Structure formats: C-alpha cells, structure tokens
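Notes to self, Helicase:
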Amino acid sequence: MSHDLSLAQKHAWRLARTLMTPVVLFQSDDAYGVLPADEVEDAEVDILFEYDPYTGGHAVH
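result:
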C-alpha cells in the first residue's frame, strides 16, 4: 500500500505490463493499493483506475 497516488499509478501500470493482465488501483482509507482486476469483488475499496496492458489506463469515475 502506498500513500502517494502518482507512485501507486506507476506501480499499477508496471504490474499490468508485467503480468499482462488488467489491474485496478484502489483506495482504502488513506492508502492506495493494486490488485489484479479479477480478484477485486465487492470489497470495501474505492476503485480509482483500471490499467489494461493492451489498451492503457483509464479512470473509473
């Protein structure tokens, strides 16, 4: 988890490109985290961005 949004975004994009699978950047309380998109269900997190290694990233809101 990171408290810096720009750092979390860079790591999310790098993770998506490394795993070659979509990942989501989420916020939980005051920290940011990244998970593969298929592992995020109805968790208590706010999804901010989705990163797809083939099409790039985009904001969810």
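- The chain has one helix and four strands.
- The chain has a mean pLDDT of 89.
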